[in-house]
Amino acid sequence: MNKYFVLDTNVLLHNSEAISSFSKNTVVLPMTVIEELDKFKKNNDELGRNARQVIRHLDRLRRQGNLGSGVPMENGGTLRITVKKETMEGTCMDLSVPDNRIIATAYNLQKNGERVVFVSKDINVRLKADALGIDVEDYEKEKTDFETLYTGWREVVAPAGAIDGMYKQGDVTVEDVDLLENELVLLVDEGNPKHTGMGRAAGAHHRMRSLNPNYESAWKVRPRSKEQRMALELLMNPAVKLVTLIGQAGTGKTLLALAAGLEATLHDEAYERMLVSRPVIPLGRDIGYLPGSKDDKMKLWMQPIFDNLSYLFGLSHNGDNDETTPQVVNRLIKDEKIELEALTYIRGRSISGQYVIVDEAQNLTPHEVKTIISRAGEGTKIVMTGDPEQIDNPYLDASSNGLSYTVERLKGRELCGHITLSKSERSHLSELAADYL
Question: Using N-to-C axis directions, what is the helix angle for 46-62 and 366-373, rounded to 10°?
Fold first, then answer.
């Protein structure tokens, strides 16, 4: 039996291709959704772009028939725009509220005997629809299971000879273990658990190389855990073009990424500059609300990055009293060796020969992450860091954000690597906060 999928506006703003995601069923857009898309279409951001793309798609479908009666789509389904004034007698729903009018469309279709599923990214709207007896769903086409998310490394029990052989010969074959490309492995001696070795899967599915001794530290920062050492192996390796790091606050994601970027850019000169960016999601307000010029605003948004850079340059300061650590950072920014930029301004750019760090990437949608990665030109490396359990975007969660989606979709790819950091290394207090608050 044909199902009727009633879509909330936020689904289309999240993914402009959502209309085509429901196979041979009927997709219903209430007129209120069209009106809300019209309000977003002038925005110069991802929401505005998605709104415009949906409107253009609807305009193409309009030429195939009457949208009010329903028009066929390429996937075998049908699209309808409802124009009937909805009523919800016997309920307490205030139909002056746009969300309630959208729910009313699903409610009345169900009352007419249709199999209805209401799809929304808004939890509160889903709760209201569920209370009315309507089947509800989140939009899950670009969703992963965060509880089983790929960690990027595993522990493997092996003979003592395999561990010793890996360090002597540089690589080893581990039978009966099917490894993903660039997956990190902790080999544990089957007879002595304290005898271990770390390697990285490369080439054949059972082949593993010992970690590169040149990647033991970056910018005088040495790893404090096996996971941080594994992260440095990926961050410092120029053959791994995309690295994703996930972890709670204090696990060292941003610090390691910046240290590796400085080492590769300023010391090894493998990249022209290091570009650091963060999504601008400040409790729902845009960057334009802050006082001052663009640079003044960026300084406020990038303060966590400045803090980390100041710490790193403090480690490497040569004792020259003529230039303080903040002055060193500002000089490198002025000389364009380090660039701090809002993600708002990255779209449309072609970024070549740069070490790109995207911090707080858990606040990006899968489409936004795709847009950023597609900006990479020749010789560019991209590092994305974040904590999917601390999300400020109201329509994303630990499973639907762009960072988690990228980890799961690109695992095992030759140019990609990932590590999940679990232990806080910032301080005991930070670790307590991460674990218990």
Answer: 100
Distances (CA, A) of 100 to 11, 24, 294: 16, 27, 39
Q: What six digits make up the tokens of 140? A: 């899950």
pLDDT-derived band at 204, boundaries 50, 70, 90: low
**What is the extent of the structural domain holding 108?**
3-137
Of the candidates 183, 180, 164, 184, the one whose C-alpha atom is nearest the C-alpha of residue 172 is: 164
Last residue of a domain, one of 117, 137, 157: 137
Print burial letters for 403-426: b (CB count within 10 Å at least 16), e (below 16). bbbbbbebbeeeebbbbbbebbbe
42 vs 51: CA distance, rounded Å: 9
Assess contact for 243 and 182: CB atoms under 8 A. no
- Say how far apart CA 208 and CA 371 lie, in whole Å: 33
Q: What is the CATH number of the domain that holds 93?
A: 3.40.50.1010
Phi and psi based region of residue 367 (left: phi greater than 0; alpha: psi -120 to 50; beta: remaining): alpha
Supply the pTM of this predicted model. 0.81
Cα–Cα distance list, 259 to 217, 219, 232 (Å): 9, 5, 9
Mean of the per-residue pLDDT values of the chain: 88
Long-range contacts of 49-55, Cβ-Cβ distance < 8 Å, separation of 24 or more = 49/16, 50/12, 50/13, 50/14, 50/15, 50/16, 50/367, 51/12, 51/13, 51/16, 53/16, 54/12, 54/16, 54/19
Nearest to 14 by CA among 375, 369, 382: 369
Query: Does some domain include residue 163?
Result: no
**Can you give the pLDDT at residue 284?**
38
- Whichever domain contains 410, its CATH number is 3.40.50.300
pLDDT value, residue 283: 34
Instruction: Identify the pLDDT of residue 367.
Output: 86
| Burial letters 196-210, b for 16+ CB under 10 A, else e | ebbbbbeeeeeebbb
